[in-house]
Fold each of these.
Amino acid sequence: MTEVALRTAALRKDFGGLTAVNDVALECRVGQMHAVIGPNGAGKTTLINLLSGDLAPSSGRIEILGRDVTGLPPHRISQLGVGRSYQRTNIFMRFTVFENCRLAAQSRLPSSMRFLRAAARYRAVNEAAAQAIELAELGGREQLPASSLSHGERRQLEVAMTLATQPKVLLLDEPLAGMGGEESARMVELLKKLVPGHAMLLVEHDMDAVFALAGLLTVMVNGAVLASGTPESIRANREVQEAYLGSPGHE
Amino acid sequence: MDTAIFFIQVLNSVQYGLLLFLVASGLTLIFGIMGIINLAHGSFYMIGAYLAFSLTGLIGDFWLALAAGVVVAVLIGLALEWLVIRFLYDRDHLYQVLLTYGLILIFEECRSLLWGDDVHGVPVPPALDFSIPLTENLSYQVFRVAMSAICLAIAAGMYWLIQKTRLGMMIRAGSVNREMVQSLGINIGLLYRVVFALGVALAAFAGMLGSPVSSVFPGMGNQVLIVSFVVVVIGGIGSVKGALVAALAIGFADTFGKVLLPQIAGMVVYLLMAAILLWRPQGIFGKA
Amino acid sequence: MERQPRALQVLLAIGLVALAAFPLVGEKFYLQFITKLMIMGIFAMSLDLLVGHTGLVSLGHALFFGVAAYALMLLTPEYQAAGFWTSLGVSLGVAALAALIVGFFVLRTTGIYFIMVTLAFGQMTYFYVHDSSHLGGSDGKYIYVRPVLEIAGWSPFDLERPAHFYYVALAMMVFVYLMLRVLLASPFGRVISGIKENEHRMRMLGFATFRYKLVCFVLAGTLAGLAGWLAAAHDGLVNPEMLSWHQSGQLLMMVILGGMGTPSGPILGAAALKVLELVFQGWTKHWQLLLGGFIVLSVLLLPRGLAQLFESKRRD
């Protein structure tokens, strides 16, 4: 088995009286897609926010690529090789597609405190950006402002930006959000391509996509882990069926 | 500092703070509910003071002049909103700042044209023109006490308006979610016009009420503007309660600062603001 | 990266040539007026670095302008000249240090709160200077002799002569303009633009945004200091008003009016405001009415500032 790229232990987040994430333990390995599913309000987005550093945990531990990153600010976690995409598109609307990715790739320079040479002349950065755009299947759209992209293309750009930082670990928060059938299928294919080289944690509501992609499934309800295992075992799990998957024909 | 002087300073602090509250509450309402930064707010205070000067001269009675002045101020507020302000609602804050700065220039010049550049006084209404003796040598003007009482009454009135009336409910709803209020069939344009006029009236009334004490002079609007912004920011944008607390805090800080620490008197208010903002960036009652 | 529309580029080139040629024909009053204009242009460019490019609206920028000016005053012995390079170096250093200290505190806030804390620091410094008799109090102090410019013992410029001072100011303005163009195209500049567009995303991409904002703030403060040093040397007088919120506010108006975030917007805005002031003052005693009216109209009609007048229909 490949290395464990992401691991949490007894992870917990309280907001005042509400416990959004309660004693969550999970693992993610390179070459594996670990999907986290659950009803709305189950704490999935909070979980991702904890992993990316957007939120600090109330208690517990997060390890990424062997390092304890609990409580580190998001930019430090990103520099360790973690990429995160957002549920609500979080791109640079007024920049072109290329500039979005170029800026993302620039973050991997040892330092951006460089004042003289034009940013556009950093060849390695440009190449990383171009590669990410190709991988995310946005080739040909580079010079368009991000604001002019369709919703599906913007979600692709989200992924492209994340890829441009050349992460080992990918945290994907509902990448298929708001997508129609054809766009979804394209995104699923894209994500499938990425699995071999990355450790991927996916939060999604689209069950077809989840079962098509995930090697490992964790079901969260009310902030806690209800069940965890292979897709088949989860599908067969009665508790999960009652709590979430519901009777046949649901979702 | 002996007790009598201390007591006087307390009264002064409260009086200054409450007057400041009137101005700042208008500012915070306009900003919190309409999302408009209005640099010309100080000008309304000035307009109020000058109106008090003219109308008291014309009518003779201070209180009638006050009432008439409020009517004039409301009309000015409504006209201004309809002519200019309503084009600012969805604009970037910076353009609001720029436009209202232009308005300051216009108002200053109109003031100069209509009233000239001299300093004027407004006589204290005769019924209240006496002092209560506190010690052998010290006494306190009753009019100042009356000012504070009136401001408190207005504060209570505002509380009732915002918490207990339908208009107040619309105001509170509008500050949280503009589109939702619109879709409920409430005429948001009209609501904004009313809120703006209310804000203008509050500032003008403060100028009028305070004119016997502070006199009427060019540039009085600018002074009060900056301090009002400080009040709004310390109290939390959109919070009338915050404006009251902050205004009183500044009233005390400024008054006692001048007495106890004259070398840094001017800085005290800003030190206070910097300290509060660095501790709690959204202001005391502001939303995080 | 933003390219300026053709029409504007041509206009700027013509403007530059005109500026360079002007001292040959212009009379002293206008020489001095345009020198002040150019100094404000530098000042406005420094603020635009914060406002237009980083999204940080400061109402206390005059602080750095003023401390640099006062530094020159303190370094100038009475009735004698300060050295050009030493006084400039110290003034810039003082401004930079002030910006570092202030920036360290104010950059913890954002939005309207940032505006207010910058205002607070500006006002605190204003009152400190205003109430300090050893700094001249509310009257300020005079600088009787302009700095003496020597390069290895050779004095090519006599700053007392309006034309010479004019060229020094012009050179500095052009230098600052070009420096900012280079800076904004650099990796640092791109980070700044990214911070303005979506700071949260920048952090998530791995950028330690606070650091970049601080460097930018110090840079902007230092350039404001350059303008302050020039203003003090030119006017021969420093007073607390140089630090007041009026000064900061007027500067902000110039930046917004000219068009934020555009390369030449700040200079256009500074020029427009100062020229209009002059013109309107010539027409009537109540010129502020006209200026105010102009500002109100341009906000209502030109959503993106004066620079919008030159924009081509297509945008890059």
Amino acid sequence: MIALAFTSLLLVIGMGGGLFAKSLPILQEHSLSNLLFSSSWHPMKGEFGFFPFIMGTIWVTLLAIVLAFPISILVAVFLTGFSQKRIWKLVYPILDILASLPSVIYGVWGTLLIVPWISRFFGPIFVEYTSGYTVLAGGIVLAVMILPVLISLMTELFKTVPEELRDVSISLGATTWQTAKFVILRKTKAGIFAIVALAISRALGETIAVLMVCGNSAETPHSIFNACYPLSALIANNYGEMLSVPLYESALMLAAFLLFIIVLIFNLSSQLVLRYIKTNE
Amino acid sequence: MKWKFIEERIFRVLMHCSLWIVFGFLVSIIYTIFQRGCKILTWKMITTLPGGGFYIGGEGGFLNAIVGSLYIVGASTILGLLISIPIVFYLNIYLSSKSKFGYVIRLAYDILFGIPSIVYGAFAFSIMIYFGLRASLLGGIIVITLLIIPIFVRSMDEVAKTIPHEILDTSYSLGATKWETVGVMMRQIAPGIATATLLSIGRAIGDAAGVMFTAGFSDRIPESLSQPTATLPLSVFFQLSSPFPEVQNRAYGAAVVLTIIVLILSLSGRFITKYFSKNKI
Amino acid sequence: MMNAVTLPIVNAARQISTLWKENIIKPITRSDNFVPDCKFEHTLEKAEIDVSGLNVSIKGKLILKDINLKIPEKKITCIIGPSGCGKSTLLKTFNRLIDSTEGIHVEGKVQLGTNDIINTQGNALTEMRRHIGLINQRPCPLPMSIYDNIAYGCKINGIHNRHMLDKIVEHYLKAVGLWDEIKNRLHTPASRLSIGQQQRLCLARSLAVEPEFILADESTSALDPISSKIIEELFVRLKEQYSIIMVTHTLRQALRIADYVVFMYLGEVIEAGDAQTVFHSPQEELTKNYLSGAFS
């Protein structure tokens, strides 16, 4: 049993180590800064610049957070301060289903609904032409995917605020929203940051859905109406051919390693903060 | 009217909007998937193998994907249960609740839960190459098992942690050994196991990025562990990228089946929690 | 060389700052004649609570049975009785915090002056709550600085002028005798104060929104004897301006400070009246038993 329990730790370390070992060949060939900041991606010529993919990941993830954060915070505040408990019984199944839908379904939904909507209605307002397969499409789909985790964690977090604090604020003549704004959000600031970090780590790793709607062109996006190519999509899209080109496998494993490290940092820090809050309640 | 009441009114409206947006997303996803897929989906599609060659042939259905998913999900769920139940027992019976080691192990599982499935896939794939293995049913099963163990451990651990220690103490004081106490605990966390299983099945059946590398894709039903296999999400993803509308239709049909399965799992999970929480202490 | 230039400047700056600290140089304000305890309009004519036929049930269980009471103005009213008799529920009914309890059902009438407490809804309810301050059992500072704790009630009610807020904070901290203890660390988190100081801070915070009534729910039970003595004395001093309702567990405390006493038992008011009358010549058998310590 102890061995089994220990394997979890081992797996985390092994995964990081293994991916790093696999990406060593390319790190010996090119400098890390060159790999991270060069925009030229030509595996056939031996040029591996990850900059467009890193920027693609950042654009899509940030957009998803920007879209999902206000919605989730409003819903969580509503659920904990404004509504009766019976509303929860209606909302939780919705969140459950949203959380359990496979990412390929989100991808299909994105291609069937969001992409055409952007290319036909929303995009033309701002730019002359857009295919619809854009940062925006990826951002919207990702936002919907991280909504359930954001909302349910925030609701849990807001519930940890002692009832007396609300009572105090309300008996001073504050409205429910003022209480939420000045007392609850203030009290749970650290927790909200941690939850956002957790949501970012989820969004970073999401693959299939963004792969299906982002357009996948290896160029650095300049607006939300450009196509982009996140790291996870890069790995998923090229595994088939990677064995035939020298260093290609190593490059993709470096991408996986980068993803692993970034996700690990976000995830670990948010888990530590959330645990700290839980024990110090 | 005072500003604070105007503010309250504005935010109340915004909150209702957010709630409706979340609900609207769910409805829109399910409606889009069903609207596109239901008119295509026939009984024949579910019960026949694809004909005329993968990617180009439009005949037949996606029985290969259904069976492949069943194989992978079934095997990895059983494996996952066998591995994670001892871990949960170890964490909750053998370790005290304040154990540092337990803290680290739980943290490791939380981190493993957060690691994107594409990273699991890339890692497993590189190991498979190292051992000279080809994409196969076995590879898919192993990756999915690794992927769902953290879910099993986390959700069973949540239930096990809430079991009052008096029950264990009573069991000890009646002269039971630690091993016999496991039986007592088993009965207590049975509902936890049920919900954890449903959660894991949901995640296992929906995952595409992990098995993409490791299970490969095939038009046939695998006859041994070393043959590649299709799964439902993979069949949606690959067939959707085909230029032939007939093949694409199969993808939409498969998407409907996948969605229905996930909906059933999610709703029955809710039902089970409700049912069991009635006669729990 | 450098010193010769900088030293006079530094000295001058020091002088100015000491002058500033000793209030010899005064900040110029637009609201120098602003009175910190007269900033909200007072619509209540009479700060009396009048309860008639009040029934409160939670999930079908009757917690308060047919309460009829008149709580006088500018007096200390003590509600006494054994635990679980519905004292706190009654208190919470007065400022409608009871609304957040699940499965609650309230019947009857509670009048605050001319306002009907039970049937007030929405914005009017929020406004009404300002007239009724609440001091909890455990001090409950908001997660912000000492200054902001006092200023909170004013800010949410639309007072943002810094000079006004400064004056308000000073005024109310002086009113509860905290000013001299903490004037140098107004901007540190309120949670760093001692429990007794926190409770006085909570009192100052309630006073800052100019309530007519103060509800104190066993407000001294979590404090050490000295702090609770200070709070008691404050209450006695404050009754000139405010009506105070106190729920208390300790009979001795009630004896010390009560002007008016309500004795409750199992959700009913057994006896209510002047402190002298109730304590020295109780009419009811139950009251006699309770006062003689037969049950608690």
